[in-house]
């Protein structure tokens, strides 16, 4: 397998991040270029990309909040980012199809969790589709039931990784 590097996002990644998102999510769920531009400016320290020699193949990002769960407004405005908040959210974890099932998303997630630990967060929280519940459980996330989120018209499930009680 090719060597995969995980590094912090930079403004030059904007076009490629937007393209990867569009390949991986239905249009109603995909974040827009404008949204990524805002996120890269607002919380670059919680936005990581996975790269091989030919370029960017996936990424993970999220804001910081005091809320125990993700709510839909967060996806649309970085004004909900509270830099010194307690919990780190996962807005999206994405790997292009050609590089899936090789542990790239796991590498991104482990890096994200380690960042949450290094910055003293209490929890990492995410919402996911039902089919991914067991995948996130493999990182230690607990299933918290159906989310209030209706992002993109889909049903979502809340999951929480507790780092500090
Ligand atoms: C979900 C997603 C990020 C997973 O990316 P990925 O890089 O394939 O993830 P991983 O390789 O870490 O794990 C995927 C599976 O491959 C398995 N796997 C990991 N390394 C492997 C290897 N070397 N050989 C065989 N299988 C492997 C994992 O155990 C996991 O198995 P599971 O599906 O039974 O749980 C990717 O499919 C994606 O971008 N999907 C579309 C967007 C999406 O739904 N994102 C999540 C929304 S929150």
UniProtKB/TrEMBL annotation:
Q: Which InterPro entries match?
A: Acyl_CoA_acyltransferase (IPR016181), GNAT_dom (IPR000182), SNAT-like (IPR051635)
Q: Does the keyword Acyltransferase apply?
A: yes
Q: Could you tell me which residue ranges the N-acetyltransferase domain spans? A: 4-162
Q: Which Pfam families match?
A: Acetyltransf_1
Coiled-coil intervals in this record? Answer: none
Q: Which Gene3D superfamilies match?
A: 3.40.630.30
What does the UniProt keyword field contain?
Answer: Acyltransferase, Transferase
Question: What's this protein's name?
Answer: N-acetyltransferase domain-containing protein
Organism of origin: Sporomusa acidovorans (strain ATCC 49682 / DSM 3132 / Mol)
């Amino acid at each position: 397998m090719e060597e995969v590097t995980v590094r912090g996002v930079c403004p030059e990644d904007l076009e490629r991040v937007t393209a990867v998102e569009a390949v991986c999510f239905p249009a109603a769920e995909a974040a827009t270029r404008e949204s990524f531009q805002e996120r890269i400016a607002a919380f670059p320290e919680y936005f990581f990309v996975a790269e091989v020699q030919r370029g960017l193949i996936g990424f993970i990002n999220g804001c910081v909040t005091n809320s125990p769960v993700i709510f839909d407004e967060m996806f649309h405005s970085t004004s909900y980012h509270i830099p010194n908040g307690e919990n780190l959210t996962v807005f999206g974890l994405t790997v292009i199809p050609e590089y899936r099932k090789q542990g790239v998303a796991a590498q991104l997630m482990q890096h994200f969790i380690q960042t949450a630990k290094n910055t003293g967060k209490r929890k990492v929280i995410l919402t996911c589709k039902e089919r991914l519940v067991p995948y996130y459980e493999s990182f230690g996330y607990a299933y918290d039931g159906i989310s209030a989120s209706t992002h993109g018209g889909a049903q979502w499930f809340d999951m929480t990784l507790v780092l500090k009680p």
